[in-house]
Amino acid sequence: MPPHHSRAAPGALARILDRSRIDALLAPWLPDAADRAFVVRCVLDEGPAHHRGANYVLLALLGQLLEKSAAGAAPAEEPRVPVPLHLPPHLREQVKHGTFPLGFPARVLDRLAPRGSAEQAAMVDCVTDGPPQHALANAAMLCVLDALLSAQVPK
Amino acid sequence: MTIQRSVFEAFRVASTELGMCSAAWLFTREVAAAGGDALVRELQETLGLEYAALHAVTERWLGGTTKPAISTGEVVRACAGAANVAVVGVEADWLDALVPLLGDAKVTLLTSPLVPVDWERLAANFGGRVATLDMSAVQQLAGARSVLLTFCYGTRGDQTWVDPLWMRVSGGDVRTQFRSIVGWEVLGTAMQVYPRWLTETSADDFAELVS
Questions:
Q1: Which listed site, A51, A62, A91, B148, has its alpha carbon 20 to 30 Å from A150?
Q2: What's residue A86's pLDDT?
Q3: Given an 8 Å threshold on Cβ–Cβ distance, is B142 in contact with A87?
Q4: What is the model's pLDDT at position B114?
Q5: Helices (H), B144-209
Q6: What is the rounded CA–CA span in Å between residue B26 and residue A99?
Q7: B81–A101 C-beta distance less than 8 A
Q8: pLDDT tens-digit profile of A49-75?
């Protein structure tokens, strides 16, 4: 009996995942090529296929929006929310470079809850927690959303 | 002249301490010096059937290649900017070439009680430049400026072969805790006999597979 709904076949996934496209999208936030390669690998090459495919679809479409706008990355001095590496608890303080190279501008969440509030802290937890393919895709989408919103809906 | 049985035992020790490929080149060179191509062929048809890397190296020797082509350009680029380079497995000749080129990066050899080797003595060969750490603690070396590196043998298409220890540290959690996962092809040729002491894996396991 065939499955009741289709699954993302590895071959089909391999055809749709255009790593260079996501690499180019992230360049304004991650100027270092090795940092970008790390993040792109985590978002598109690690974890379950359906998550990797979904990450690609959402980021590629956000990238199309970004191309059609005059939006750009937040200034470097804008505070960023780091995304921690998914390390065992006892190593979180011990590892020197314990965050992924991609964070997202803190200001984007200011649109939803005041900075420093418990509500915004909960939002940060939600978007940075979980496996790296989730947390980093969230951060990448928030970077792009911040750029789009800042260009169209100044706070 | 024929190869003494003690050579077989010596190769087992050497391949553990120097790495399959480095030991294979050393023994092939010495056997050739003692008995020429005929003795190299005997080595291939005896011990080479047990050690696929040795078989491949003797094949290259008999084809006219008398030393390994150790190229560091790609692997140095893959490790550029790293604060930590964690190495799984040993290939002495390749590490001898690479370690001096890694600048300020801390180089750590991941050890395992599963391998009967004096790890501290092995690391001492690098003049204090290489530290050791039990591989069960590999995550202590994790970070956005950390590289996890191992040696690959006989990569063919999307297949490659690695030290079995690699399988102990290359889980999905560790993969996303290191900036890059690097495989360094050291054999440079396909293996013709079953590599019983190595483990097959996918070349896709590596963010970069360099040679």
A1: A51
A2: 87
A3: yes
A4: 83
A5: 166-169, 172-175
A6: 43
A7: no
A8: 889 999 999 999 999 999 998 788 888
Shortest Cα distance, chain B CAs vs residue A72, angstroms:
25
Within B15-113, strands assigned E span 84-88, 106-111
Q: Measure A31 CA to nearest chain B CA, in Å.
A: 14
H helix and E strand count, chain A: 7, 2
Extended beta strands in chain A, E state? 80-81, 104-105
Confidence of residue B196 (pLDDT cuts 50, 70, 90): confident
Size of interface A-B (CB pairs under 8 A): 59
Instruction: Give the Cα separation of B82 and A140 in Å (integer).
Output: 23
In the numeric block, which tokens belong to residue B19?
Answer: 């790495």
DSSP 3-state of B121: helix
Residue A121 has, within 13 A of its CA and on its CB side, a CA count of 3
For residue A33, what is the DSSP state?
H
* Residue whose token pair is 């200001």: A107
Q: Over the stretch A122-139, which tens digit does the pLDDT of each residue have?
A: 999 999 998 899 999 999
Is the ipTM above a cut-off of 0.90? no
If residue B185 lies in a helix (H) or strand (E), which one and from where to where?
strand B178-185
**What is the rounded end-to-end Cα distance, in angstroms, of chain A?**
54
Distance from the B110 Cα atom to the nearest Cα atom in chain A, whole angstroms: 17
